[in-house]
Amino acid sequence: MAGVLALAPAAAHPLPVEAHARLVASRPAPGEMLGLAPGAVVLEFSEPVSAALSRASVEAPGGRRFGGSPAGDREIRVELTTNAPGVYGVDWVAISAVDGHALRGGFRFGVKVRPDATVQSGSPSPPDLAAAAGHVLEYTGLLFGVGGLLLRALARRRPRLPWASPPLAAGLATALVGGLTGLVAGVLSLDSGVSWPTALAYLGSSAGRTRLVGLAAEAAALAFWAARLPVAVGVALLAAIASLAAAGHAASAAPPLAVPADTVHLLAAGAWAGCILVLALLRPPGGWLGPEGRRLLSRFWPVALGSFGAVAATGMVRAGQELRGLADLWSTSYGRLLLLKSAVVLAMAGLSALAWRRRLLAPRLEAALAVAVLGATALLAAQPLPPVSLSQAPALGAEEASQGLPREGDLTLGDHAGSYLVGLTLRPGRPGPNTAWIFVLPVEGELAAAGVPVRVVAAGAGRVADACGLTCRRVDLDLQGAGDLRVEVGGSEGGSATFSLPRLPAAAGQSLLALEQARMHRLRTYRMDETLGSGRVTVHTSYESEAPDRLHVSVEGGEEIVAVGPVRYAREGQAAPWTRAPSVALRTPFFDWDFGPARAPRVVAAGDGGGGAEQVVSFFEGGSTTPTWYRLWVDGDGLTRQAEMMAQGHFMVQHYADFDASFTIETPGT
Ligand code: HEM
Asked: Between residues 386 and 57, which one has the greater pLDDT?
């Protein structure tokens, strides 16, 4: 009953009390509103995730789903080839590579709309609770096994106490049944349906293999007991306990002695709490205060005292290894469970002290508290660790990430080379000696940019650029402008980007941009065609916009979306039926570069664009989290005829037309 009571808070309150502690970071962030869709959604977790079993998906506003899988130790990445405006839903299932636990959740972000910022956490599924119950049984059985062997040895001292014969077979069978339940429930909780490949992938993972060794050891212990080989039972129990320790959080703790500390903790817990569990089942002739009962208790006290000291000491060592500091004790669900566990352990210790002083002998109550401690431990073992690991992860410093990005006053241009985003920034951007800062970012992320060779060819001469950070390369050049500069990026996904430089220094672009913003936001209607490339695939989309809140998006060969105020209609193709759903209303006109602030805007070209005088303004937005380069072809009235956007994995060209044409976007079906 005490065990059930210890599990009750979990049933009443979702296990992941702080779901965001599991998903430690994401790009975009939950609830974030972006100007253009990201090339990839990146999720970072507090524990290493299993590459074979973890995955994430993103549902775009039109209903299209993009899938992704682990791209690094603690990272899942979903590449997106869409720029549809609206709310994007992210869902993930991360299976911890450390202990095989499934962590689930989801959140939303928006492109040109702001969604709510809640992070949904998967509440514990029935298999999660079954796994926790299995762990309580397994712990109880193993501790009972250790305690039983010990009490058996104490009872065999002279004078022998033949009545003190613990029902070891029942205890060992409990451990095996608990272990099996935990394993099967663990596989079922993976959330990908019950399939052999998933089960095999789980059993093949290091956590799965260790669990199998533990189960084999538990079965062997039972078989050895049936064959009356107590020493072999002891060895098998030790193996089962060590593998339990190696399949849990201890395996991921940074100090190398975490697994041995956990093993000693469990052995000592067996010698103290395990013995109490056994004592609760024994019936000494004449009761515990009779001569026989007191004889066994007097043999047990020294063992109990020593093992209590060992369990408390190793417990504190383990707590010290998992917590980042004292504050974690009350600020994380892991810490709060640990406090609860320690409180019940103290209550047990108090009862033991009363029994020692012969004030109150209540072995059954003590045993019930021991099971409650094990219930709390099962929840503890199922909790995500406080993100110790994150503070140790090699974080990409803002300083390093921003190197290679433009500052106010620079001349900056963006393009792509293969699937790499390439930013070229000339500082000071005047005729003569300049430093060319080159920013390179593949869709796989900053770490994948490390060591990628970059060569710069200007005025016919090629130079290898020096690395100045993961994404940063630099080379000193003597430039007059008005010529081509080529950036060649190595690697299998690389390529080259040719920038046509304006005459130096290029004119400031602020006033042109202000004119453009004012004019474009007065539009009532317009049409736009967009080509989105990722370096691997290309997507064509056409848009119709009608102020103040109507938009029609049509992806070539794909989905169609009509947004009318707070209602969104979508269909998967011309022949498919429309679905209608409430959504966050879009505000139109709304352009990808509206977020600003535009950094280092400069007029980089001027000429006759066919329809009249056109000037091209180039600028940068987004800082180091979503670096994006823009070029706008603006006519004499301030209308943007063409826009180019270069962001990670998203290289886009948009053509604008039909400004203030008379059309209306109708509700589908009317
Ligand atoms: C003040 C005393 C104690 C403290 C501070 C403590 C702390 C801990 C900690 C931090 C862990 C690691 C949990 C994880 O895997 O994340 C642990 C594991 C464990 N403790 Fe304790 N503990 C204490 C007493 C006890 C007692 C009295 C028992 C037995 C009734 C017990 C049984 C266990 C078990 C079975 C494990 C699981 C090991 C595993 O799954 O790897 N602990 N304890």
From this structure: 57
**Residue range 114-124, pLDDT digits in tens:** 887 676 666 66
* 215 sits in which H/E element: helix 206-226
Q: Which two structure tokens, joined as six digits, stand for 102? A: 């499934």
Quick check: 53 pLDDT over 60? yes
User: What residue type is 272 in one-letter code?
Assistant: W
Residue 273 beta carbon below 6 angstroms from any ligand 1 atom: yes
Is 311 in a helix, a strand, or coil?
helix
Which is it for the CA torsion 457, 462, 467, 470, positive or negative? Answer: positive
Backbone dihedral angles phi then psi of residue 458, each to the nearest 5 degrees? -135, 140
* b (16+ CB within 10 A) / e for 48-82: bbbbbbbbbbbbbbbbbebebebbbebbbbbbbbb
Q: Report how far residue 146's alpha carbon sits from residue 365's, in angstroms, rounded to the nearest whole number.
A: 20
Mutate to test the pocket of ligand 1, among 305, 341, 366, 385 (most ligand atoms within 8 A of CB): 341
CA of 265 to the centre of ligand 1 (A): 7
Ligand 1 atom closest to 342 (CA) = 1
Q: How far is the CA of 241 from the centre of ligand 1 (A)?
A: 12
| 493 has a pLDDT exceeding 60 | yes
pLDDT of 253 reads 54
> Hey, which of 96, 136, 265 would you mutate to test ligand 1's pocket, going by the most ligand atoms within 8 Å of its Cβ?
265
Domain spanning 398-505 has what CATH number? 2.60.40
Residue among 2, 8, 21 at smallest CA distance from 385: 21
Domains 18-121 and 398-505 equal at CATH topology level: yes
Q: Work out the average pLDDT over 444-454.
A: 86
Q: Which of 175, 168, 96, 93 has the alpha carbon at shortest distance from 134?
A: 175
Residue 9 CA to ligand 1 center (angstroms) comes to 19
Domain ranges of the chain: 18-121, 126-385, 398-505, 508-657
Angle at 174 between CA 170 and CA 180, to 5 degrees: 145
Architecture of domain 508-657 in this structure: Clam (2.50)
Rg (CA), the chain: 33
- Strands, E, within 610-661: which ranges? 613-621, 628-635, 640-647, 650-657
Distance 318 CA to ligand 1 centre (A): 8
Q: Provide the CA 374 distance to its chain's centre, in angstroms.
A: 29
Please choose, from the candidates 545, 495, 511, the residue with its C-alpha nearest in 3D space to the C-alpha of residue 654. Answer: 545
Give the pLDDT mean for 415-434.
Answer: 94
Q: Which residue has the higher pLDDT, 96 or 417?
A: 417
SS (H, E, C) 454-522: EEEEECCEEEECEECCCCEEEEEEEECECCEEEEEECCCCCEEEEEECCECCCEECHHHHHHHHHHHCC
pTM of the model: 0.67
**CA 346 → CA 117, 137, 370, 462, distances in Å?**
41, 22, 11, 73
For 18-121, CATH gives 2.60.40.1220
